[in-house]
Known about the structure:
By secondary structure, the chain is α/β, with parallel strands linked by helices. The protein contains 7 helices and 7 strands, in the order E-H-E-H-E-H-E-H-E-H-E-H-H-E. The chain has a single domain, classed as NAD(P)-binding Rossmann-like Domain (Rossmann fold). Strand 1, helix 1 and strand 2 (31-36) form a beta-alpha-beta unit.
Amino acid sequence: xxxxxxxxxxxxxxxxxxxxxxxxxxxxxxxxxxxxxxxxxxxxxxxxxxxxxxxxxxxxxxxxxxxxxxxxxxxxxxxxxxxxxxxxxxxxxxxxxxxxxxxxxxxxxxxxxxxxxxxxxxxxxxxxxxxxxxxxxxxxxxxxxxxxxxxxxxxxxxxxxxxxxxxxxxxxxxxxxxxxxxxxxxxxxxxxxxxxxxxxxxxxxxxxxxxxxxxxxxxxxxxxxxxxxxxxxxxxxxxxxxxxxxxxxx
Length: 250
Ligand SMILES: NC(=O)c1ccc[n+]([C@@H]2O[C@H](COP(=O)([O-])OP(=O)(O)OC[C@H]3O[C@@H](n4cnc5c(N)ncnc54)[C@H](OP(=O)(O)O)[C@@H]3O)[C@@H](O)[C@H]2O)c1
């Protein structure tokens, strides 16, 4: 697929990995909706950088804890600015440590709401709004793509990030289920990153992983995830897959 001229929504697109995905898409000629929650300044800078380079982008604020309402808000802004949306990149997430012994209702619900339910509401809106199987002006069926950003550690037991990993592993299951449900008009794939950007204040354990558990002895970069997104978007015969980008750590 030639992705130039398409329209993408990237959730959590203002900073870190999301920002790299937005900038990579824009550099390929994709119009980008930079969704953000609290990072208004960073979202504005990301949009300005893309527009200054000759691309197209807007920023849209929505709290993913608002469920379907936030999906409505993001999609309304996207279609007002750019028309039908072709790609949905579910990147936004929270990442907090807990174990069964200290599990509490609020933390579990928040992880499920942001890391699991929000991508589902966004996907539901994407599927219902953008894809009626009508031919586009090149006489080809309009094929959309949902990409879900997981975490390879959510694909194996991770007792010290219980709420996070349960929500992400449910999302891994959703990747395969939605791929079957939404074919042939929408492809659904996931990327499971390894150590890419350390959480603030946790740089030492990131370095320890590089030394001790990553065979390639290096950190990934946000650009590695953005490259994986571009690869999947351009690969017409891939759906229902989870691509691990972890330097072999898994
Ligand atoms: N960093 C890594 O090394 C790594 C490793 C494995 C997997 N991943 C996955 O890769 C993705 C990106 O990682 P990251 O480290 O770049 O992410 P991040 O900075 O932790 O979070 C991405 C964005 O999610 C948004 N978000 C969180 N709660 C929200 C809410 N209630 N409403 C709206 N937006 C909300 C935040 O937007 P605002 O800042 O605008 O509030 C934040 O910028 C995530 O899915 C993560 O699980 C990352």
